[in-house]
Design goal:
Blueprint: E1 19-28, E2 34-43, E3 58-61, E4 68-73, E5 84-89, E6 99-102, E7 107-111, E8 118-125, E9 130-137
Antiparallel strand pairs: 1-2, 3-4, 4-7, 5-8, 6-7, 8-9
Length: 139
Amino acid sequence: PNDSTSTAIQFIGASMPNGENLIPLTLENIFGCSVNYDYSLYVYWTTETIDQSNLDEVILFPNPANNEITLNINSALSLEDQWNIFIHDVNGKMIPDLKINAINENNFLLDVSDLPSGVYLISMSNMNFIYTSKFVVNR
């Protein structure tokens, strides 16, 4: 199929063993064309305690936003690492070419002036840290 829409798949209550798990998927578009995929999902269960101190290491404000959002990263996080930052709408569509400007080493300005009103997800990660949050653009 040649369809640009995306769909999120959730595994609720699934119990999978550690390691690679093959999940067969059949995708079908509105014209009835389908394709089969074997999707590899790697699972690594752990008994380690989740570090709750990371919960306030990134602050996103204002929320809801109108034209711009400030992303404040706690100085304890290494800014020398390469960061991956992605913005998606609630349908899972990635928002390309979002302008992100550094204010200083811990604060970044996201220009959301071109986004329509709605709910969005921001995800940022590096080798040691993953952060995901919801924000609202309200005009």
